[in-house]
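Lab meeting, item 3. Inverse folding demo.
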């Protein structure tokens, strides 16, 4: 409350700066907590939920992209890019029944194959015919979005925001006073 009174006397810009910094910190922590929770519930390594990989196993991009706010644009946006995790990324051994994958999954009737580019993939037939195949995927999008909403809208996140806001507010005031 004292911090807010002092900021009102100074103007909107320092208050906006503190507000955005606190908001960005809370969003970053919520993203991390969400990825950890989904990873634990699905029994998958965090790196597969956090990043997309190309065929050779190199990091391609983030699955959960956080566009941080700034003084001109006070909103931060968290976007989930996920069409499902390809089973080939977490596949283990091929058995007589199908393909085993991390997290205790078994895809019956699936098989491992190598594409023309040398990329290892897991395929499954859609019908009895030879050609129509599909790449099975592990759906994580809805679960990740629900977890983000739960972590961002919780009371704990509100308390965290207030704590960070007061800490950053004090730092900003000290910076202004020492000028």
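The presenter then showed the designed sequence:
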């Amino acid at each position: 409350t004292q911090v807010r009174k002092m900021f009102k006397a100074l103007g909107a810009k320092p208050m906006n700066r503190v507000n955005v910094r606190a908001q960005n910190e809370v969003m970053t922590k919520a993203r991390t907590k969400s990825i950890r929770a989904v990873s634990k519930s699905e029994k998958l390594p965090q790196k597969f939920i956090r990043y997309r990989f190309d065929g050779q196993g190199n990091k391609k991009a983030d699955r959960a992209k956080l566009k941080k706010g700034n003084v001109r644009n006070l909103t931060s946006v968290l976007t989930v890019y996920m069409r499902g995790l390809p089973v080939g990324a977490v596949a283990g051994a091929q058995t007589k029944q199908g393909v085993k994958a991390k997290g205790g999954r078994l895809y019956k009737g699936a098989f491992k194959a190598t594409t023309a580019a040398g990329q290892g993939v897991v395929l499954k037939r859609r019908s009895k015919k030879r050609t129509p195949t599909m790449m099975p995927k592990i759906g994580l999008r809805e679960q990740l979005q629900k977890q983000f909403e739960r972590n961002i809208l919780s009371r704990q996140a509100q308390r965290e925001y207030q704590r960070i806001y007061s800490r950053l507010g004090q730092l900003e005031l000290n910076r202004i006073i020492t000028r």
